[in-house]
Structures are given as C-alpha cells and as structure tokens.
Design a protein that fits this description.
Length: 196
C-alpha cells in the first residue's frame, strides 16, 4: 500500500511523455521541488488536465513509485495569471523567470515552507492587475532575493535584512524601490557565485 501525499503545489512546468502522459515539475509546500508523472493527462477525457496547467496552483495527491512520483489526483485552486489582465504577457514572463530560478536552484525534495509562503504571496501580488510597473519590479526583486536567501545563496546583509524577513507587503515594496540598485547588484553577485 502506497502512502498518498496531499499537498498544495505550483505547477512550474511540464513536458510531454509517451503517448498521452506528461511529466510535471511542481513546487510543493511539504516536499519542495518534485518531478512527477501523470498518466493519460493529455487525453480530452482526463480530469487532471485542467488542474495541472503550467503556472497554476493546485491541490495534488502524490504517490511515490519505485523510481518516480505519480500524480493521482488534482484539484485546481487557481490559475496564477488572468488572461484578461492588460499586462498579462509581462506578468507571465516574470513568473516564468521566477519558476525557472526555483527549478535551477532547488536541491530537489526538501521542504521549505518559508520559501513556499513567500512564493505564494509574491505570485499573488504579481498577479494583481492594479500593480504599477515599478511595483511589479519591486515585487520581482524582493521575491528573487528571498528565493536566493531561502535556498542558501544569499546571506543577508544588515542593510537588506528587512527585505528577506517578515511578510511581503506594500510597505516592504516601497523600501525595495529605494534599494533596487543594491538589490539587483546582490542578486547578480549571488547568481554568479552559485555558478549554476
């Protein structure tokens, strides 16, 4: 009897496999980064296909097979971006970059609840149509800095410590907008040092 893991997850990406299967890269609250397959998910009749769209948030049930994880059920929570947003393309690009960074820097199956909560709050803010271009840039830079911090690629400097702790809020974004040059420099240095 296999243990079923019930978890919330962001669908970071997917790729086709076999005739109608897919392999998903998901970032979960309880297990961290997981690659899991879903059988026959590309068939029109599949109940999973709508819950597992790229860039969506879903509740999923996972089973550990001999070699890989399998997604056995999924319920959609929401699509990360509304296609009706006038800046939809720009927001999808930012989220795509953030998800790529998590895939690149995560060390696999390792729970990181703080990172998950920051990601959830950051993505929620990026998805807000009312956010200005400047505020969008601030959310992105704070979220990237926090990803690097949570994954051990950035040890916080005293002057930026407020940006990697506490809740991501509008007050934090106003601080980030005044420190953006410093934040970007720190992000670039951390990425160079990671050599990934």
């Amino acid at each position: 009897m296999h243990h079923i893991y019930h978890t919330e997850a962001f669908v970071l990406s997917s790729r086709n496999s076999r005739e109608a299967d897919k392999v998903f890269t998901v970032f979960t609250k309880e297990l961290g980064l997981v690659r899991a397959s879903a059988t026959s998910v590309r068939k029109i009749s599949s109940k999973l296909r709508y819950a597992l769209q790229d860039f969506s948030l879903a509740r999923i049930d996972l089973v550990r097979g001999r070699e890989t994880w399998r997604i056995i059920s999924a319920t959609p929570i929401k699509s990360v971006i509304s296609a009706t947003s006038p800046t939809c393309g720009e927001r999808i690009k930012i989220i795509g970059n953030i998800f790529s960074l998590i895939k690149r820097l995560s060390h696999g199956e390792e729970a990181n609840e703080f990172l998950y909560e920051d990601l959830k709050r950051g993505i929620e803010m990026i998805s807000t149509p009312a956010l200005s271009e400047s505020e969008l840039e601030s959310v992105e830079s704070v979220l990237v800095l926090r990803i690097l911090h949570h994954l051990g690629y950035f040890s916080h400097k005293p002057e930026l410590s407020l940006l990697v702790s506490g809740e991501i809020s509008e007050n934090l974004l106003s601080i980030a907008s005044t420190e953006r040059v410093k934040i970007v420099a720190e992000i670039n240095q951390a990425l160079r040092e990671s050599q990934l």
